[in-house]
Input
Amino acid sequence: MRKIFLLLVLFFYPGVYSQKLNPNFFTDIYSIPSSDSTLQLFYFYKIPVHELIFSKTDNTYSAAIQLTIEVSDSNSNFIQRQFKDRSISFNDFSLTTDPSYYIEGVVAFPNKNKTINVTSRFFDVNSKKELSFKEQRVQKITSEGGEFLTPIVLSDDIFKCYENNVRVLTNWGGFIPFDDIMYDILIPCTDTTLEKLFIKVISGMDTVFNGPIERTELERINFAECNDRIIISYDSISTLTSNFYLTQLTKKLKEGQIEIIVSNSESFLNRKSYRPIVKWINKPRALAGSESAIKLLRFIIKNDSIKQILKSGDNYDTLLHRFWKNIDPSPATEYNELMAEYYERIDYSMKNFSTITGLSGLETNRAKIYILYGTPSLIERGTNGDGKISETWTYAKLHKIFIFVDEKGTGEFILKNTL
Output
């Protein structure tokens, strides 16, 4: 009964306080052959806005960055330098500190070299300081793989750009996101006579796809910015490619490195292998260690049950996922929404309920209620009859009310009443 109750309560309030705790900058480089026998290179970037300094004008909060990209050859000889200015504005101040918001873009530059060094720097315009991110990467440009270009991860929905329906890059630095959203994988091929592509996808020990896919379109792929997103566009400069879309697959992929093998024949004699990583972009910090994550199950199961789980094997990662698989609301997919929600609530409790005396947020009464029931539909803060600060949490759909009081003025709210 306990696990069924938890399942119901979690899905009354899905993802309301989902904590986006990953502050990373995401960058990637992609190359497409041009019609003049050169390569067009694209530098993608994605920066969390909470890393930026915002200025206020009237009711608008604005931030801006300047990106500098320097390209040199394998002998460190300067080739070119590119600058890119980007800005972002919000009317709601809370969005300026929301880790789920990013500023992203693309910079294109031609290239004829086999190996290049790419150095990128980001400058915060308002603070007049360089951001704490500097990347230098060596990009080898080879003809290995022949006609097959690197797979591109796209959102599976259609995006509106000036009345046109376009496809949007997920733009997570080449990673395939591990979450509850379905993505498409675009595989371009320079062989314009190819109408069928044979693909094998291996995730963990499982072959999750093995078969042919039909060509979707014959187009010249390019990338552009539209409404603060990076989209697939088409032009007359890039090489014409046969474009194949691998769909309805990403939810079957496990975390970690996978292998995508593409070929123009069923025998896979001429083939190219890609090894992208499936990454849980905003993975809760509470899942940093499997053993500690198992111990954090104490809010929903008894300590004896936790000890039994820990004693049943030494592969804590397997034990943790086995526990959650038994109560997975969508067992046909790899991402477990229930597991994600539970540990996101633990992260939130750690961050928001700790006291000035050093008491961990997880040891507080508010954490115990929050982890079990999620975000209240209403929180009312006031004082009780003794003049002490109180919080009243109302869960309208559950017909429950919890009243907490900060008895000592330390931020430790004690549960005083349940209605």
Observations:
- The chain has a mean pLDDT of 88.
- The CA atoms of residues 217 and 384 lie 67 Å apart.
